[in-house]
Amino acid sequence: MSIVAIFINIILFLLLAPLFDGVMRKITARVQSRQGPPVVQPYYDLFKLLGKERIVSARNWAFRLAPPTAFASILTVAALVPFGSRLNALGGRVDAITLVYLLTLGGVAVLLGALASRNTFAAIGASRETVTMVMVEPVLAMTLILGAVRAKSFGLGSAVFGAAGAGTSPSTLVMMAAYLLALQAFVAKQPFDISEAEIEILEGPFIEYSGPDYALFRYAMMMKQMFYAWLFVAVFAPFLRTGFYAGDILAQLAGTLVVFVVIALVGSTNPRLRIDQAVKIYAVLILIALGAVGLAVAGM
Amino acid sequence: MDAIARITTELNGRFGADIKGEESPSPARLFVDIDRRALRAASQALRDLGGRYMVGIGYDEIARNGTLGLIHTFAFDADHLVVVLRTSAPAADPAFDSITPDIPNAGWSERECRDLLGMKFPGHPKPKKLILADDWPDGVYPLRKEVPYNLEPPAAEDVAYELDEAPPGTTVVPVGPFHVSLHEPAHFAVYVDGETIKGCDYRGFMTHRGIEKLCQTQVSYNEVPFVAERICGICGSVHAVCYSQAVEAAAGIRISRRAEYIRTIMLEIERLHSHLLWLGVAGHLIGFDTVFMQAWRVREKIMWLAERITGNRKTYGMVLIGGVRRDITPEIRTDIEAALVVLEKEVLTLKNSIIGDGAIHRRTKGVGRLSKEEAARWSLVGPVARARGLGLDARKDHPYAAYDDMTFDVPVVDTCDVWGTLVVRVLEIFESIGILRQALAKMPADGPLLSVIPEALPPLRHAVSMVEAPRGEAVHYVITGEENRPERWRVRAPTYPNLQAVPAMLLGNQFADFPIILGSIDPCFSCTDRVAVIDAKSGARRVLGRAELEGMSRRPEAGRSRS
To answer: pLDDT tens track of chain B, all 563 residues?
Structure first.
């Protein structure tokens, strides 16, 4: 059963990530008084990109390796997360640090591809992406550490379900606020879509990518967004548990959808910040997250 | 003592021997002919008397008397006066002292005369090509009469514009010739240190259409308004009205009051359209697409209104020398009034959500700062100047059409940044709505739409006319000709002075702010790129096939040789 669950994870992530993206686009369009593309548009986009000719504009291995690496790392994350509120065969063997590392690997792959493409705009994008990674990843780490501290184990299950598993506490609420505020940065939406910033640096790190390579990056981005939205539900909404595997999956998906609605609404009602402005906000978020862990250590 | 007397006394006192003539065809215009020896000193004197530099005009009189003429124009806004300083030099030695060191805004006008007429400006701080293509042959000056309008010199290979030296420790970020934040081709080389902008060089004028040359050689007086309207897709009526006013002033044609009111109405509808369009673009430039979409949704109503009045959503085709082409009937008047009610409500909602949005404040306040003194030194115009405490508005300072009958405010703020330009434009939308209501209410019931124009207009008369475009003051200078068309027609769009000051606005800002700072002047490259002779084809003679293009895009070295 727990091996089947791995495949269920992978299939659900691969299948639903573009749909959530489509929902966000639809909501954004509605806020802007537009009809918007059909919710299945992201699937069409991916198919179109995958069917295009592969154009390699920089002759080095890093440029080619970056998209599959980013995709593989986020797919591995998808495979091992405790979807449906229970650990699968993979998730039981890893700890929270593995999860953070895999996510960082995905980010590093984007940076690698950007720097390997030797484009001025990609370089600016990469430097912004680096700053974002360094400043935002701690909030994710603290969220998992909070669970680990409360459940007294670094196992993946404890880290994810520890924060709210034993009832709501002040530390959980503080961490929830930090996570919510960091959410737009996790999923690279306004006001924190700074490293892609179409109008300034033309999608930054991805400027030299097209066709199937770009499709892999896009797909990885969508799955990353789904992961962060799901993680919020898994960590902070324990009340969605039904006790059945299938019921839990459905409940978590419904919760994830709600998080995506929030992301789309925040994203469509904010302009993009500058990186220097964003860094100040990130710093405050790290402090809040640290405070939450501190509260947990103090037993609150 | 009135302004004309004050200025002539001052000029005569200092340059009496060099002044060859003075005429004042109306209390609002003063033409002074001066020897070129005194040009720079006289320009300085006019600036010190409070004159705001508008534009320089060069013209070819070789066939008539062997000279090249140069004109500098100065506006005395408080005195409702324009002073035109005319001089000339023999074609064999067309050198004029550069006034750019004193008046930076003259830089482009002088470079333009250098490119197009072969004048020389000793003392110019940046004597580089401005308008002509990099491979245009030396010694061919397209605005001289002997050069045919359709000359196509052979293309040259391997010629490129030399960018300014990058300041030490900076990298060059190329914005353009094609970039998503530019709606038309232009090239900004932005020198950045990290993300901080340390300098910027501009190379534009890439889509020259040769409109001035075309109109001076091919079409007739009353065809020009339609060409003028196509100078810019957004302020078309502005250019058509500005040109027509200049010809009417030169030839002494009076148009009916009703026609003037209809021109006023079209100009204000154009302003409403332009400001909403800008608001949307500004939202897009700071990554706020909801503002973009909502502003353009509201703008759509104005497009419908324009279609109702003129038959066209844009490029209205309403203006001719002598008046306008279509009437505003009582039915249309009702439609306009109904549309204004809806519009006012929608814009009020838009205004409240934008003015109260802290995130927009963060992206626009303190961005693109340029002090009031600097703004005056660069002769900025329009909302860009009014956001920096300079209360310029041609509708008040140099009234035309029916604006002398209208009561309206000119919003001025002194934040000196991008935020100020946004506030000014939003407030102007409400003033425009007010002007439209007054114009509809006060419009005289009768009067010919088109006045009768004499068969031949008197030749070689000079006239200058200003219209406050949504982006700022547009200036047209016309010298009437002998062949039923202008001898010389010079267009200066508001982007022309404002764009020259953009490098100063960018200095020290973050690269992320580049799009909105450039956007804050509402740049119109097609307005500035109107002048030279067709050259777009040169260099593109070799047609690249698909395989070649693909090969170029795959070769890692291609296009990267300069970085």
So the answer is: 588 889 999 888 998 889 888 899 888 999 999 999 999 999 999 999 999 999 999 999 898 899 999 999 999 999 999 999 999 999 999 999 999 999 999 999 999 999 999 999 999 998 888 888 888 888 889 888 888 888 888 887 777 777 777 777 787 877 777 777 777 778 888 888 877 888 888 888 877 788 888 888 888 888 889 988 888 888 889 999 999 999 999 988 889 999 999 999 999 999 999 999 998 888 888 878 888 888 999 999 999 999 999 988 888 989 999 899 998 999 999 999 999 999 999 999 888 888 888 778 888 888 888 899 999 999 999 999 999 999 899 999 999 989 999 999 999 999 988 899 999 999 999 999 999 999 999 999 888 888 888 888 888 899 999 999 999 999 999 999 888 889 899 999 898 898 888 888 888 888 878 888 887 887 776 666 554 332 333 333 334 444 554 555 544 444 443 33
Nearest CB to B556; choose among A59, A194, A269: A59
> Residues B144, B60: contact at Cβ < 8 Å?
yes
Distance from the Cα of A144 to chain B's closest Cα (Å) equals 30
Contact call for A199 and B513, based on CB within 8 A:
no
How many other CB atoms sit within 10 Å of the CB of residue B26? 10
Separation of alpha carbons B453 and B547, rounded Å: 58
Between chains, do B290 and A199 touch, taking CB under 8 Å as contact? no
Cis omega (within 30 of 0) on the bond before A18?
no
Of the CA atoms within 13 Å of residue B54, those in its CB half-sphere come to: 31
Distance from CA of A196 to the nearest CA of B (A): 11
Please choose, from the candidates A146, A143, A129, the residue with its C-alpha nearest in 3D space to the C-alpha of residue A179.
Answer: A143
Strands, sheet with B462-469, edge to edge from the N-terminal-most edge strand: B462-469, B472-479, B488-492
Contact between chains at A199 and B180 (C-beta distance less than 8 A): yes
| Preferred mutation among B288, B290, B350, B506 to probe A, highest tally of A CBs within 10 A | B290
Q: Does A200 contact chain B (CB < 8 Å)? A: yes
Q: Show which of residues 231-290 on chain B sit within 8 Å of chain A, judged by CB atoms.
A: 283-290
What is the value of ipTM here, to two decimals?
Answer: 0.74
Cα–Cα distance, B563 to B556 (Å, whole number): 12
- The full DSSP string for B45-57 is HHHHTTPEEEEEE
With CB atoms and an 8 Å threshold, state whether B290 touches A193: no
Cα A294 to Cα A300: distance, rounded to the nearest angstrom = 9
Per-residue b or e along B424-444, where b marks 16 or more CB atoms closer than 10 Å to that residue's CB: bbbbbbbbbbbbbbbbbeebe
Q: Is B207 helix (H, G, I), strand (E, B) or coil?
A: coil
CB contacts of A208 in chain B (<8 Å) are none
Chain B hits for A277, Cβ within 8 Å: 362
CA angle (A91 as vertex; A236, A83 as ends), nearest 5: 45
**Which of A31, A59, A275 lies closest to B512 in CB terms?**
A275
Between helices A2-31 and A245-268, what is the axis angle to 10°? 30
Question: DSSP letters along A169-231, please?
Answer: -HHHHHHHHHHHHHHHHHTT-TTS-TTT-HHHHTTGGGTT--HHHHHHHHHHHHHHHHHHHHH
- Chain A hits for B563, CB-CB cut-off 8 Å, are 118, 120
Bridge partners, B120 (sequence order): B95
Q: Across the interface, which of B284, B288, B550 has its CB nearest the CB of A270?
A: B288
| Encoded tokens for B183 | 């709606």
Taking each helix axis as running N to C, give the angle between helix A156-165 and helix A120-151, from 0 to 180 degrees, rounded to the nearest 10: 70
pTM of the model: 0.82
Of B181, B285, B297, the CB nearest to A33: B297
Spatial CB neighbours of B394, under 8 Å, sequence gap ≥ 6: B400, B466, B467, B468, B473
Query: Hey, how many other C-beta atoms are within 10 angstroms of the C-beta on A240?
Result: 17
